[in-house]
Amino acid sequence: MAASFDEYVVGRGPGLLRFGYLLTGDRHLAEDLVQEVLAKAHRRWSKLERLDQPDAYFRKAILNQYLSWRRRRSSTETTIAHFPDAPGHGDHATRLADRDAMWTMLAGLPRQQRAVLVLRFYEDLADAQIAELIGCSVVTVRAHASRALTRLRAGFPAATSLIGGQS
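The chain above was modelled as a monomer; its predicted structure follows.
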């Protein structure tokens, strides 16, 4: 039982951590988030390993834990991980500044809106699937996405090229 859980965490842990990072925008908070979910799941692993899609269960558990967190950050500093730049045009420093500005704006979105954007653009889920995960209607998902993208575009003119021209 324990070896099977350990193997799952070793194999799928990095993907779960990336998902947590996209939700929180902070590596340490993402680690805490995933660790809390995995600690709770370890006790129930004998049931969970029989699921057809344990990844879906863990992603939903991480999302629920993220949405329910009531913690406040002890400081306003936000660490940003370095992602390799995609080939493109323009000045490297400008691209880094734009990316930093985008992460700052994403961090300022309400949790529901940020979760919708992560589920839509990172997990590539349909609105109906997002609505089911978050526990709201499809219309609410679309409203969250629209408001979030409008806010990003208004606060960051270059966002149109980074997040697409339409919601």
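The two ends are 45 Å apart (CA to CA).
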